[in-house]
Amino acid sequence: MSGLFKKEVGEPITEYLTRYRIEKAKELLKDNTMRLREIAEMVGFNDVSYFSNTFKKVAGMSPTEYRTLSEIL
Q: Rounded to an integer, what distance in angstroms lies between the CA atom of residue 73 and that of residue 71?
């Protein structure tokens, strides 16, 4: 089934889900009242450090940097 997903979507299901979860986290980070731990848990990460590392790998910046940048814009 994962082979079919990759064939249809163009990327493995794990990469797709990770990217999707990070996009949801970006939306949630715009709410300054939410803590990083809450956001991580809401998008399916139990470990905040792992969430932060994954976010940085996908988004090119840390969740905190992203939040600061979104406040400016």
A: 6
CA-closest candidate to residue 55, choices 28, 18, 27, 30: 18
32-36-41-43 Cα dihedral, nearest 10 degrees: 60
Q: Helix or strand or coil: residue 8?
A: helix
What range does the domain containing 37 cover? 2-72
| 7-23 confidence digits (pLDDT tens) | 999 999 999 999 999 99
Domain containing residue 25: CATH number: 1.10.10.60
Count: domains in the chain: 1
pTM of the complete model: 0.91
